[in-house]
Amino acid sequence: MRMRKVLLAAAAVLLTAVIVLVAAAGVDFGTSIYAEYRFARSVRQSARLGFDPFVAIIAFPLIPQAMRDHYRQLEIKASAVDRPVIGKATLEATMHSVDLTDASWLIGPNAKFKVGKLESRIIIDSRHLGLYLGIRDLIVEAPPQVTNSSTGGTTESGISGSHGLVFTGTPRAAHFDKRVSVAVDLSMADKTTLVFTPTGVMTGPNTANEPVPDDKRDAVLATFAGRLPDQRLPFDVAPTHEGARGSDVIIEGITTGLTITLDGFNQA
C-alpha cells in the first residue's frame, strides 16, 4: 500500500511537470506568433509593401531571447515586389545575431537595430527575366557541375557559381525558331547592374540539344546577352555573389556588423 502511494505521488509530480512544460511551450509559441505578426506588419509599413511579407523569428524558446534583447536569427521574404526594369522580383534578407537593445522585442516600423551578419538577396524568376531579354519561354538552370553535385550550390543558401549557367529558350529575335541552350556567365558591372554574357551554345544531355548553324551563332548568342540595371539589394548591401537556384537568377550580398532600419528592405 505504501509503495502504491509513493508511485501515485511520483506520477502526480511528473504529470504536473509535464503540464507546466506544455503550458510554457504553448505560451512561448503564442508569443512567437504575435511577435512575427507585429514584425511582418512593421516591415510592410516601413518598406512600402502592399502585403505582409513572410517573416520568421528563428528562436525557441523565444521569451528568454526577447528578455535578453537579442534574437539569434530573423528572416524576411517578400515575393512579387515591384522592381525597376524587371517588373517583379522576390526580396530576401536573413539577419543573424540581432541586437534589440535600442529597439523592442516587438519590432516596430521605426525600429533601428544592430545586426551581426546580414544576407541580402534579389531573386528573379525565369519568366520575368525571359520577358526582359525577349525570350518568353526562357528556363534558367545552374551549371551542370553544380546541378549534379550533392550540395546543389556553392553558397550556404544554395546558390550556384556565376559561370556556365544554362539558359534555354527560343531566340526569335535572331530569327531562329527552335529552343536552344546557351552557357551564360553572370557578373556585376557595378553595385546595381547585373550583366549576362553568353559564351557558347550547349548540346548534349540536360540541354535542348539543338545545334546552331555557324551563320546564326552570333545572332543567337546575342539574344541571351544583356544588362539589367537598378537592382539594389535589400538594405543597400553590396553584391558578393551571383548565380542560380532552381530556375531563378539570384544576386546575393553578405556583410557583417551594421545597423539597419526596416525601410531599407525595399530599395526600389
Protein model, in words:
The protein has two domains: 2-124 and 250-264, no CATH class; 126-232, no CATH class. Helices cover 27% and strands 35% of the residues. The chain contains five helices and eleven strands. It has a six-stranded antiparallel sheet with strand order 1-2-3-4-11-10. The protein has a five-stranded antiparallel sheet with strand order 5-6-7-8-9. Mean pLDDT is 87; it is low at 6-13 and 17-25. This is DUF2993 domain-containing protein. InterPro entries: DUF2993 (IPR021373).
Quick rundown:
It is built from 5 helices and 11 strands.
What topology does this entry show?
Layout: H1 2-46, E1 54-57, H2 62-67, E2 70-83, E3 87-99, E4 112-125, H3 126-133, E5 139-141, H4 144-147, E6 165-169, E7 180-188, E8 194-202, H5 214-223, E9 226-228, E10 241-245, E11 248-261
Antiparallel strand pairs: 1-2, 2-3, 3-4, 4-11, 5-6, 6-7, 7-8, 8-9, 10-11
Task: Record keyword descriptors for this entry.
2 domains; 11 strands; six-stranded antiparallel β-sheet; 268 residues
Q: Please, what is the average pLDDT?
A: 87
Helix content: 25-40%
Count up the domains.
Answer: 2
β-strand number: 11
Q: What is the number of helices?
A: 5
Rg on CA atoms, Å: 25 Å
Indicate the proportion of strand residues.
Answer: 25-35%
Strand order of the largest sheet: 1-2-3-4-11-10
Structural class: alpha+beta
Q: Could you give the distance between the termini?
A: 76 Å
Low-confidence stretches: 6-13, 17-25
Organism: Mycobacterium cookii
InterPro entries: DUF2993
Protein name: DUF2993 domain-containing protein
